[in-house]
Specification:
Length: 98
């Protein structure tokens, strides 16, 4: 069984930290609280019968109907109006040193 000090030493190494004695005490207290919380969760029985809760208040969001829009048939149509093409590539001005 691991001792509390071993766990804190491990956390220090893992996080590349060095705790002062007062910080070690705070971390120890927080670890105890976390362990107590998990122990409480472990006491819950018969989780198979509990339905999942997605939101405390049941909200139904209104969704719009999907309607298809006119789309461009090819990338060349889309680029031909706004870009300079060279060999199928967009040609842009040089931006890095001359």
């Amino acid at each position: 069984m691991l001792q509390e000090s071993d766990v804190i030493d491990y956390l220090e190494r893992l996080a590349l930290l060095k705790f002062t004695e007062s910080e070690r005490e705070k971390v120890r207290i927080e670890i105890i609280k976390i362990i107590e919380l998990f122990n409480e969760l472990m006491k819950v029985e018969e989780l198979d019968r509990v339905e999942p809760l997605y939101h405390v208040i049941e909200i139904e969001l209104p969704l719009r109907d999907d309607e298809p829009l006119d789309t461009v048939d090819s990338s060349h149509e889309l680029l031909s109006e706004n870009a300079i093409l060279e060999n199928g590539y967009i040609k842009a001005p040089k931006t890095v040193g001359e």
